Predict the structure.
Amino acid sequence: MIGVDSPISEVANGGLLSGPSLDAGAESPSAHRHRIGALPSTSAAELIALMEASGLQGRGGAGFPVGRKWRSVADHASGARAVVLVNGAEGEPLSLKDRSLMASRPNLVIDGALLAARAVGADEIIFYVGAAHRAAEAALRHALADRSADVRGGARLIQAPPGYVSGEESAAVHFVETGDARPTATPPRPFERGVHGRPTLVQNVESLAVAALIARYGDAWYHGMGVGMSSGLGLLTVSGAVNRPGVQELALGSTVAAASMAAGGVRGGAHAVLLGGYFGTWAGLEEARDLRLDQPSLRARGFALGCGVVHVLGGRTCGVEASARIMSYLASQSTRQCGPCVFGLSAIAQATGRLASRSAQPGDLERIRRWSGQISGRGACRHPDGAVGMLSSALRVFGEDFAAHQQGRCVRALSMAQVA
Amino acid sequence: MADRLAIDRIRCDGHGLCAELLSEVISLDDWGYPIIKAGAIPSRLAEHAQRAVEACPVLALRLRAADPAIPHK
């Protein structure tokens, strides 16, 4: 086990960001091979068993066990050929870790994709990269060209259209198939029937990069990386009221306090933390400090790691206003297919916006409480669930603020005025 | 085996006939879209559930075998 205070990049057989600094640009295939060795020749069955033994969970947001996903696709593909869709859409506004990883470690992502393709029996790999992530795309294109012998014509790169929902797995498959990045009704899920109607593994780029390390160093290495009861390592994007916002690699099980220390420490006056991104959950700063950043620990406490976002809310920003901005964005990102999402999120966003601007109509707070409880599970994808999950946590953490805003007052503005 | 109702949320346009025919299980939200009570359809309502499925003008409602492993949608 490594200590909370020792950066993973300084550990032998280190993590995703060991080696040259993130700002140094893309690591070349030869430097990459020299640093961590050639792609292991592990068999498909052994790769799946290894991922299962490691306990690696997906890093795109849902936290689904990677080994189980690989096995499902492999099982469905028996006979037919599967497809691997490498998900680098990263539409989450508070996350930078996927684009940073693709831009700086393209060969690690490609390694993971090649290993996943071997494991599930795929002869086609699609790199689905957010259109705005230019450096990431360039790095991947360059690395793919350099490694034509490895990919043997079976890989292509597609720009994911902008939008929060473009990276949702059925939306990604739909876009590759038809050019329409809206989610589709499930079942069938992509692992059953995806690209070309074939079983498709949709996997986040960080998950694949970690898989490439596990394939080299073993599941015991991965377990040893965690803090306390947790295992593994992960990328976080720490932002907001911290001194050095950016991407950090931490041992899973590190606390929120450790993550903010890694980002230079929290600036004075901060009062809450958004964990997991816009689909995530708010926590008060005090309760957040000791929370352990790994999927099982956070879930047990009613939070989620999501895609590894830790956003610290500064002292001058009211939680009602911050939550209203996020709700408004998420409502705007509905792909407008399912009624509860189209009308529900929009109504919730408007009422929350009125509360934030202290122009609430009577009953707005009661309405957003009621609506938030009605929306989960009522869309083709989990976009509405994520949005109301965030708002429900805001109603808990900023309960007093919401109540004051319903009365046209802002507690935070008052307290800031008293300090000034 | 008991069935449960599944809605294709993309197809559903909020016509609301299902809630009229099966108000014991289906209510409507403020915008007219169905909210289905969790759980399997009680056998005494099976016939009404079938009628609601057939009445949906956009074929968004289906009955399928209850599977506790799949989260209710």
Summary: The two ends of chain B are 19 Å apart (CA to CA).
